[in-house]
């Protein structure tokens, strides 16, 4: 079969067939009387083998080795191809993500594009200072896509940079809460913690709704952070979790402050006092728990609190009793 016929049937151009011949990959078996290349059925079969191996990403050199080296073992080469392909996919995915984020920022001109690229690169810098400056300048220099800010916030370990990213997210203009809420379902505890802390800094109704849902999280750190944030927003749903924090002695001072702020609402004050007194009524052998509950009652108005403090003023633990008496003295002097 002449080279033109082979090209038509195989889909490999005559020029490429000549290139294969120059590399020694496939040589036509003979020549016609007019001197034209003639390919046998075996030659054509080899051409198809070459094309099949090229479709896997092998170079022409690797193709030649695969076809001609009796000691060639494909498993190692295939393993390398898998690794290279994964690396290429990762690089292309990263590029696609970057391009999508630049597009989402709707740059007006190439200077905008360059500023956005510079900020995105700074957010991924090894330098905490550069990451922090990028977060703080994101609202002024160029609008960094919220997806990039969320990704950075969920992976940021430096507390100063994390604070700057949370500030930027709170001013990002929407879309951040839904993306951060996905982080609450992460298998990584650190990611869940960063997600709830970032949501807590966003003062809108959507964030409050997500924080309410977070009160039922199986992650105790998420529950506590959500409770403190909701307490500061005056949400009564946080009361049981805040009381739990006082009993457990975890962020108990912050929890007591949140309950005190909530108790400024007369409709919540008795609910809080009843909750705290209820923990005392059920009894606890741990005097440190009773002491924390007494201290938490200090700023909760109402008769329920007064009765609880009166009982605690006779507590068997001297520190608890003295604390309760002192609080009663302060309350009586108001």
UniProtKB/TrEMBL annotation:
Organism of provenance: Microbispora corallina
Domain HTH merR-type per the UniProt entry, residue ranges: 1-69
Pfam families for this protein: HEAT_2 (PF13646), MerR_1 (PF13411)
Protein name: Transcriptional regulator
Record-linked PANTHER family: HTH MERR-TYPE DOMAIN-CONTAINING PROTEIN (PTHR30204:SF93), REDOX-CYCLING DRUG-SENSING TRANSCRIPTIONAL ACTIVATOR SOXR (PTHR30204)
Keywords attached to this entry: DNA-binding
Source superkingdom: Bacteria
InterPro entries: ARM-like, ARM-type_fold, DNA-bd_dom_put_sf, MerR-type_HTH_dom, MerR_fam, PBS_lyase_HEAT
């Amino acid at each position: 079969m002449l080279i033109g016929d082979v090209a038509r049937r195989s889909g490999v151009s005559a020029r490429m067939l000549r290139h294969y011949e120059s590399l020694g990959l496939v040589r036509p078996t003979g020549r016609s009387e007019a001197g034209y290349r003639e390919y046998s059925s075996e030659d054509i079969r080899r051409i198809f083998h070459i094309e099949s191996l090229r479709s896997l990403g092998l170079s022409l050199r690797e193709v030649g080795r695969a076809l001609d080296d009796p000691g060639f073992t494909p498993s190692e080469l295939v393993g390398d191809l898998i690794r290279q392909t994964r690396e290429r996919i990762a690089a292309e995915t990263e590029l696609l993500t970057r391009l999508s984020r630049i597009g989402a920022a709707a740059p007006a001109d190439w200077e905008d594009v360059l500023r956005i690229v510079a900020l995105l690169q700074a957010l991924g810098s090894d330098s905490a200072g550069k990451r922090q400056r990028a977060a703080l300048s994101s609202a002024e220099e160029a609008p960094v896509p919220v997806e990039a800010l969320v990704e950075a916030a969920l992976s940021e370990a430096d507390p100063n940079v994390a604070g700057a990213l949370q500030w930027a997210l709170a001013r990002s203009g929407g879309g951040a809460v839904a993306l951060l809420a996905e982080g609450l379902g992460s298998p990584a505890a650190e990611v869940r913690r960063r997600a709830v802390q970032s949501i807590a800094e966003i003062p809108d109704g959507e964030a409050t709704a997500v924080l309410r849902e977070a009160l039922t999280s199986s992650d105790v750190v998420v529950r506590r952070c959500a409770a403190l944030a909701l307490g500061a927003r005056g949400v009564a749903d946080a009361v049981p979790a805040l009381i739990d924090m006082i009993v457990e002695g975890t962020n108990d001072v912050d929890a007591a402050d949140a309950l005190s702020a909530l108790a400024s609402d007369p409709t919540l004050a008795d609910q809080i006092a009843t909750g705290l007194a209820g923990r005392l009524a059920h009894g606890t052998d741990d005097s440190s728990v009773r002491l924390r509950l007494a201290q938490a009652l200090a700023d909760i108005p109402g008769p329920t609190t007064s009765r609880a403090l009166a009982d605690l003023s006779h507590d068997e633990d001297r520190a608890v009793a003295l604390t309760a008496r002192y609080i009663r003295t302060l309350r009586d002097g108001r």
